[in-house]
Amino acid sequence: MGCAALLLPLMAAAQGWQYTVRINAPRALETLLEENLDLVRFRTNPRMDRDQLQRMLRSAPEQIKTLVATAGYYTPAVNIRFEESGTPSVTVDVEPGEPVLVGGVEIELVGFDSTPAAPFDKEALKDGWRLPAGAVFRQDEWEKAKRDLLRAVVQTRYPRAQMTSSEAVVDPETRRALLQVTLDSGPEMRFGELKVEGLRRYPESVVRNLNPVKPGDYYSEAALQAFQGKLQDTGYFANVDVSADLSSVLGEQIEAAEDKAEGVPQPSTMPPLPLLVRVVENKRKNASVGIGFSTNTGARASGTYDDLNVFGLKMKSALTLETKRQSARSDFYFPTTADGYNDSFGAAVERKDIEGEITRTASVAAKRAWGTPLLERSISIEYLNESKTVNGVASARSQSLPITYAVTWRKVDNLVFPTKGYVLNATLGGALLPVLTDEKFIRATARGITYRPLSPHTTVILRAEIGALASASQDGVPATYLFRAGGDNSVRGYAYQELGVERGDATVGGRYLATASAEYQYWFKPAWGAAVFYDAGNAANSLGGIHPKSGYGVGARYKSPVGPINVDVAYGHAIGKARLHFSLGFTF
Predict the structure, then answer these.
(1) pLDDT the model gives residue 7
(2) Which ranges of the chain have pLDDT less than 70?
(3) Distance (Å, rounded) from C-alpha 384 to C-alpha 579?
């Protein structure tokens, strides 16, 4: 039983008196009554007097019974006491009794004619009913269950479905509610041809090649949303609206309604709905500058320049100047093909100064990517020319032409803020032909992360990464393809790529990599959380030479509009120092 005292001062204009109200009821009902009971709602009315209060006291028991019935309690015991001595007070005692339970549910589906080859799953629709027998009958849950049932239908091939009747019969004596709903599917609808409006600069193929809907497909709101999302992700458009052109069949619907009123039999399907895409093109050119800081690579200044139509291609270029890394690159993207391929090519130059090793690289690459956010695949070819300086001495110059195949599997509950599921990534490639290659090699990597919720507020995150490179000699293999560890998304407690093969006072990459991490998160508010973690790993030139270095610490988590923000303080056990790490988002 919860108990709350509401001090409700009411200064009558003429009499200048006041009273208090105390409600004794279970916590949920207490809140319900505090928010809706007239004795509370009119507490600040300056025109309240004793006679009006007496009228409210007489009507309060029925009002209370009506209110608690919406929460499933139909036989409450209500007692109201009014004391005038001293400061007038009202005490409301409510014993709700046993709740009314759902005794049975009858769902009648009218229509829902479909072809034998693709029947509508009516049983699955019934199984999805959200207020089953045995559940407490609450008015808000009853209304929500009906809305959800209708929504589950109108988002599919029956967008004109209607709930023609619904009834809840409550028996207070048996404390059971019998529920009945009737849902009329209306006509079955399919998609027709695609119409595109708003294109000025780009050909229609930019839109048509991304269309997952074929003429004759059943109407599906999910398909419309998926198509709209693909178009928005291209970057070509400032605004995208994908819908079924209902105006094209409006005349047929009006005529059908008139025939139905006259008793004329109606067809179960309607003319195809044209698929209508309205777009507003983005401005062609865009430039931006920014400054920032990374605990991996230090202070950063950056500039970008994008042009959405360079000989029919989308160009994205960027210049980044960081303490440990400086780069400039430009990439060109072809429109997605009708088969779903995303082709691109680009060039880049980069300089890195990491742990006593300075590398300068120039590269050109071409890539083909395809798939979905749940399964992404790509194949790329890159020519890379690199010079390397270790401990201030120019030590090597190398070139390579590797081909790499990559695949990423995602099965998470949310792509931006995952709390359950896993992501896996694997790559396999190498430079196997003696063409523009100083040393042939094969390289493979695998990394994964899994999210395991332990409770609504706690999550365990496990992460691992392995890598291996095989070659006759390490000399001639560009440092870019070797492995290091350490940093924000590797082994925390150590500097960016600090762990690897020691060469004098410098650290260089090795042939093998192995890292692992375990993190426990507790979310004390929806957007704020804390974490404890343990990381370990290293890179070396042999499997036996991998001696894992460990780091552990605590962190803060924040779910920002652009992704999760992580701030960690980690202690590197091997070096005996603590280090601050900051990262945005998650890898993969």
Answers:
(1) 37
(2) 1-18, 114, 248-269, 585-588
(3) 33
Measure the CA–CA gap between 422 and 452, rounded to whole angstroms: 9
Residue found by looking up tokens 């399964």 in the block: 375
Q: Which residues pair with 583 in a beta bridge?
A: 566
- If you ran DSSP here, which 8-state letter would residue 226 be given? H
**259-302 pLDDT, tens digit each:** 555 555 555 557 888 999 999 999 999 999 999 888 999 999 99
For 564-586, give the DSSP string. Answer: EEEEEEEEETTTTEEEEEEEES-
Residue of 376, 368, 428 whose CA lies nearest to 402: 428
Cα–Cα dist 515/537, whole Å? 4
3 state DSSP class of 361: strand
How many alpha carbons fall within 13 Å on the CB side of residue 476? 14
SS3 41: helix
Helix residue ranges per DSSP H, 186-249: 205-208, 221-233
Write down the pTM of the prediction.
0.74
Q: Which of 328, 333, 421 has the alpha carbon at shortest distance from 373? A: 421
What pLDDT score was predicted for residue 259? Answer: 54
- d(C-alpha 146, C-alpha 304), whole Å: 50
Give the pLDDT of residue 485.
97
The pLDDT, as a whole number, for residue 268 is 52
* Rg of the chain in Å (alpha carbons): 33
The three-state secondary structure class of 224 is helix
User: Beta strand pairing status for 176-184 and 298-310?
Assistant: unpaired
Cβ–Cβ < 8 Å for 500, 507: yes
CA 329 to chain CA centroid, Å, is 30
Q: What is the C-alpha separation between 429 and 405, in angstroms, rounded?
A: 6
pLDDT of residue 13: 39
Burial of 433 (C-beta count, 10 Å sphere; 0-12/13-18/19+): exposed
Domains and CATH numbers, the chain: 2-95 (3.10.20), 101-184 (3.10.20.310), 191-281 (3.10.20.310), 403-584 (2.40.160.50)
Give CA–CA dist 31/4, Å, rounded.
9
Note whether 469 and 475 are within 8 A (CB). Answer: no
Q: Which residue has the tokens 């009648």?
A: 108
Q: 375-390 and 357-372 as β-strands: parallel, antiparallel, unpaired?
A: antiparallel
Model pLDDT, residue 85: 77
Give the three-state DSSP class for 61: helix
Extract the tokens encoding 388: 């390397």
**φ, ψ dihedrals at 146, nearest 5°:** -65, -45
